[in-house]
Fold these 4 entries.
Entry 1:
Amino acid sequence: LDLGIKDTKFLGYKDFSSKAKIVKILRNAKEIKKAVSGDEVVVILDQTSFYAESGGQVGDIGFITKGKNIFEVLDTKNNGKVVLHIGRVKAGSFKKSDLIGAQVNVERRLAIARNHTATHLLQAALRKVLGNHVKQQGSLVSADRLRFDFTHFKEISKEDLARIEELVNVFVLANQKLNTKELTLSQAKKNGALAFFGEKYGSKVRMVTIEDTSKELCGGTHLQATGQIGLFKIIQEGSIAAGTRRIEAVTGTVAYKAIKNEENLLDEALQILNTSADALPVELQKKLNRIKELEKQLGAQKMDAAKNSIDSMISGAETIKDMKVITAVLEGADMDLLRKTTDIIKQKVNGAVIALGSKNQGKALLILAATLDLCDKGIDVSKMIRE
């Protein structure tokens, strides 16, 4: 949008609330004079405590108020350096030049800050455990989780992943202080600040330092000390492209809830198996061995039953265009049993097309075969089964 107005002054690094003046109200990218209850509009202020989505960090939500008039901010985005407060008028009305109060959702902002500060600690831990070749390739910082993409040339072992998670929590428990400073890009580089993926930086940059652990160029919102993160837990790790991996993690109360959920699942499993946590691996292995043994016995019984019914399948064949068509449904048979049964039938007959089916664990299985003499005549069962 070509708004033709001054850049919005951002106050949100220090303040969650602010007083401001409405500069413009937009609906469908066009300026309107007044927004009333129910209108979905964009409100632009001369200054704001709302952080606009940028650098992987999601935009703030909250409220803009004028007495009993309420505008709910559902998202915040940038248009150049003009901040767009996107939302809906919940009560009353708003117009250009109104003096308002703006209040960010503090609980959500702090949850986002936990995750953002944690991404800096995570990058430091990754570089320490895996090596200095690790470089950020992208990130998402929201209230409920963080996602961090980085360069690495091979799969991360369980031991290394556990070490990375442990190291981040060591940084958290150390309650290291965060310091932010504005300086030139060349000064930041001299200070050893990390900057990645070809971002365009202005003449002035913001350097976020976490004591001796991390030093990065970052415009996002952060905590005052790492101890405010509370707890860091990795929930997923994997490859997303050649040479690029992704870690997803949670912090604070979300991490606590994730751990409690795992505990509840473990307790439920222990009750079902009637065992203790220490004995769980041994007990599970016993159960798995027993299941394999029973499956083997059941498979043998099903094979015997199938063999016993083969003659009746053959005798019940229909003849169509000088070909025998042998069909049967073997209840509970898996694909291996269907294949073996088909092979036995082919050894006993000539000039036959065989179609066997089964319903197994809620799935429909189907196998189609022809004896070799029919294959030599051009019968193609792969085309048949596709049809």
Entry 2:
Amino acid sequence: MAIEPTIPAHEHVYRTLRARVMHGEMEPGAALTLRGIGAEFDVSMTPAREAVRRLVAEGALNLSASGRVSTPELSNDRIEELACLRAILEPELGSRALPRVHPALIERLEKINAVIAEKIVKADATGYVRANLEFHRTLYLRAQSPAMLALAETVWLQSGPTMRSLYSRLPRKQASEKHRSILAALRAGDEPALRVAIRSDVTSGLRMLLA
């Protein structure tokens, strides 16, 4: 895999692996090796080790006492904790974004939601997770709250592989229908309804794993 010439090798490896984990391209508990990462990206062990170190620090990867590197396998307690964090952070981000929402943004969100529906029909788990996060990030960027958004993205990162596993349990069209409630609240400028819709959307999926 060619490395972008404008960024250091370790940064390229980090960004690529981070996106894979966040978008559920890797199953929970999937193992990685520094040798394998180095071979894939055509880099030495040093950039591979630095990228893994950063991802372990973010909770995107686990490092066992024996040195085994793998994607997270979340316990029920951990799933509940991440669901609670999303319930706290994301309604607030939506509320802060609401005053800056405009018709073009709502149209953009509607298009993303149509893509989500297509991914569900096509049984494209990775595409579903990626488009779902794009829907939320596109809205939350309007909040102009970078620290809060960074915290939300860390939660998404830690739950990416689990969200992939969750996909197989989702009722058809559930995600896109919940997003329609968010869109309705945005059109109405209804902040309380928006908070309720976002909280329902971001917690129902993870908590389904606890049922």
Entry 3:
Amino acid sequence: MPEHRTSENRLPPWIKAKMPGGPKYMELKDLMRTKNLHTVCEEAHCPNIGECWERGTATFMILGEICTRACRYCAVTTGKPNELDVFEPIRVAESVKTMKLNYCVITAVNRDDLNDGGATIFADCIRRIRETSPHCKVEVLIPDLQGDWDALKIILDESPDVLNHNIESTRTIFPIVRAKGNYDLSLDLLSKSKSIDNSIVTKSGIIVGMGETTQQLTETMKDLRSVECDLLTIGQYLRPSQKHLKTAKYYTPEEFDELKQIGISLGFKHVASGPLVRSSYHADEQHLSATST
């Protein structure tokens, strides 16, 4: 693919998102503050926040807003986390019910300070959502749990509709941007999920524009398919601040289409690929693609 580079202060014309501010957006923003909840939509500066919140969907970020890791692409605050809030799942379930969601995503910061990485809180969220909103499908976007497969089983025993874990980048770029992570461990987690419960849809995501090549991206897609990953998202890296990794390249919409076709040819049941695509973008549609075939 030909490279397209531009100043980070002058984004390409195809990277555009509407400024949030509609009535539904303001309603949900007030609800999150009232319930003392956090969303990855806000913490990670997601460009789709206005669109998704106006549709009445959001991704809840549990276990606080402070991460124990410091990935070079991520806008989430790093530091010493606050004490565990065991009542958080109740508030999440209440919010899902209030919002009348048919599909919700639960994600979290890395909590390497916890023995189970927060697995019991994930499981409690799923359980309570199912109790109060039995019609609502639940996707969990989880950290690597430091390879604790007992913790993974705690989550899977609650039968989430989708088990999502983002690999984020290629094998070559991974150690540069995720120093405290491990590429093979991320693959192992997705593989272990299938071995524990093969009926649960698995999903992963890649951020492009951090210095990778098309060949490396193809190899990563092959690696994900080798562990039977069902769904894939591919989106553009946008540098959150001057302290973060520089954007190496802006992919064109045509290049994202090419990456999507590569993924489809490799056997993914659904590939969402585009400049503003994020892991939870139209997650309900992605899940439907995986379960309707």
Entry 4:
Amino acid sequence: LEIVERLDGVILAGGVDVAPELYADERHASVQASRPDRDSTELAIARATAGADLPVLGICRGMQVMAVAAGGLLEQHVPDRVGHDEHSPAPATYGSHPVRTVAGTRLAGILGEEADVPSYHHQSVLTHPGYAASAWADDGTLEAMEDPDAFFRLAVQWHPEVGTAPRLFRALIEA
């Protein structure tokens, strides 16, 4: 909380999978080795920023951390459900696919109705208490969520830092 009080905004960035034990699930064989130090620190930051209503942008793992911090669950291996690897085509290779935003959300105001996004994830958010879904992939994968009661608390499953449109970063900076 002391750290968060000194900040103007936070980006919870992408990275290794969140430990399934933190959302009371058994580990799928595809889950990467856990980083307990990073998990505990980022979960604490997610909770502290929510309490302080500090502007937050979650990116990929950051979205998953925000969901888990709120008591949500993750889908540990998206290809098992969707039957393809479009969200993460190969190691160290970003895919690209369209997402459709939910009308009336902050994200729709930033991106419009649809956007092609750079993607590199095999996990996704299943449940997200306190957050509203704000974008979906055509295969039914949740691609973004936001807290409708927060000043700016938005998370995306894709990697905007790899893309060419900095709209999400501009929105965070403006917030």
